[in-house]
Amino acid sequence: MPTKINIPDGAARIIAALQGRGYEAYAVGGCVRDSLLGKIPKDWDITTSAPPNAVAAAFRRKHTIPTGVRHGTVTVLSDGGAYEVTTFRVDGKYSDGRRPDAVRFADSLEEDLSRRDFTVNAMAYNGERGLVDVYDGRGDLSRRVIRCVGDASERFGEDYLRMLRAYRFAATLGFSIDPSARGAAEKLRTNITKVSAERIREEFVKLVMSMNMDMTRLFFEDFGSVLFPEVYRLRHVRQRNRYHKYDAFEHTLAALSACPADLEIRLAALLHDTGKFETETTDEFANHHYKGHQRVSARIAADVMSRLKFDNATSGNVVTLTRFHDDRFRAGDRALRRFIARLGPELARKCLLLQYADSDAHSDYARAFSMPQIAASLEMFDEVLAGASALTVKQLAVNGGDIMESLGIGPGRAVGEILGGLLAAVVDDPSLNERGTLIEMAKANLSSIEGE
Fold it and tell me: Is residue 310 part of a domain?
């Protein structure tokens, strides 16, 4: 690992300006960690002995934003970037297990580092003093382990979210979790429900997107019963039939590991079989069946997405992907056009990718006939999409006004039904998407509707 860290000009100017006024100042936390790992930090945080008013004075107030003065933080604008500058501090008591009741400014960098969560995040650096590493964070980087600063139970008891952060850091960095940290997390895990859904969601998304399946498995073993009981209980769904080789929990992890780097697909993979716990039946040959599990899984997915306060668009897409993950069809232009028309191009492509990952986690028997079909649909997807003359009502060669004028009818249910029927016909046969042809078909459809 490098001894010298290249601090960007904006942050270096802030450190130099504070040092020029007689204060200590260091780059601290994740930027130091990432630099030692040879990564490019996203943010550069600075810690200093200067109180907030001195930081503001050093850079003229027009170049600073009082983002968190109560906790000692001032954002300084420098060289086109924004840098959080925080006074050395020690956190007070954490009554709610989420945030300190109060903070006091500390006398030294070492005191400030003692309040931080993990050793790999408790390092500081400047050009004069070099690396300040009181808790052997650099050693833990070499050992590839996430270890708490001081007593793990105390650190997690201060802020329960730190438990999830341990698993997230281990997943994204490819590290293990120190046994003392995991033991403390297991002891305190039920307290994670006291943390806001938004904070839990943020850490969980990073974990899912890391695709570190060993750590994802460990996370569900340790926190699944508390945060995701719908997924955790799949360990009891054995899936004894020729289509599967894993129980539902192992199948879910295997499907997740086969997904591309798309959040909606990965969340749907995680939730796609959650309905199997409620729908399992056994036939006379002891084979397990899960009729209707797609609908139940979609309902559960809606509950989970709402519980974690995902935005409506993401939630809706994940629920739809979950609902249609098992809608299989033989590869072919007509069937694929119908599928795209039903879900829309973007979601249809994602659903096929989900189906492919799901199939990859089945038995060899199931994979042999399902995966080639899905792969063929994915391969012809763009060609079919380009060749389709209409996949939505808006793409038809006629609109509602044309229908009403040509057929002499007013607005109402019949217009929508006629357009829906025309779209279905055009999806099956794109050559029908011509105004005259559609008008004649509409007249026939009207006669059929009126005859009912």
Answer: yes
